[in-house]
Design goal:
Number of domains: 1
Strand content: 15-25%
Distance between the termini: 16 Å
Radius of gyration: 14 Å
Bound molecules: ligand CA2
Oligomer: single chain
CATH architecture: 3-Layer(aba) Sandwich
Number of helices: 5
Shape: globular
CATH topology: Rossmann fold
Strand order of the largest sheet: 2-1-3-4-5
CATH superfamily: Dehydroquinase, class II
Structural class: alpha/beta
CATH class: Alpha Beta
Helix content: 40-55%
Length: about 150
């Protein structure tokens, strides 16, 4: 029985489209949820799209993914650059993981150039804005199809 792809979003991503449009664009997280769900549907996947400002809640959701999801797409927001707890949870999840960022973190401040999440990810997409979530869904569909072969 296919399970949803968890699309997990970290701190302050609830503010995109409302603040800092020069960096994060004008689409809200709800707009991104809709376009992600739409792309997933065309690929025969379902999405469980969530956002939290709390590190522990993100860790709880990643732990739930072990039983409840076929894969994890994660924009950990600022926790990307700090969280060993999220890295450990991803390593324990035994699921395909794709890391996404709206902005190109390597064109920004040096502290954003390090990702604690990347070592646990199959791949990372950054710099394409909301389109990155669709690219991630496409890549996830391929990873799942390959794993099932
Ligand atoms: O580019 C991304 O997707 C990020 O994960 C977004 C995070 C940032 O900390 C990462 O370095 C890169 C920030 C999420 C949104 O933060 C806002 C802050 C102020 C106003 C609006 C959004």
């Amino acid at each position: 029985m296919p399970k949803p792809i968890y699309v997990l979003n970290g701190p302050n991503l609830n503010l995109i489209g409302l603040r800092e449009p020069a960096i994060y664009g004008v689409e809200t997280l709800d707009d991104i949820r809709r376009r992600t769900e739409k792309r997933a549907e065309t690929l025969g996947l379902t999405v469980d799209f969530r956002q939290s400002n709390h590190e522990g809640e993100l860790v709880d959701w990643i732990q739930q993914a072990r039983e409840g999801a076929d894969g994890i797409i994660l924009n950990a927001g600022a926790y990307t650059h700090t969280s060993v707890a999220i890295l450990d949870a991803l390593n324990a999840a035994s699921k395909p993981v794709i890391e996404v960022h709206l902005s190109n973190i390597f064109r920004r401040e040096p502290f954003r150039h390090t990702s604690y999440v990347s070592p646990a990810a199959n791949g990372m997409i950054c710099g394409f804005g909301p389109k990155g979530y669709e690219i991630a869904i496409e890549a996830m569909a391929e990873l799942i199809a390959k794993a099932g072969r």
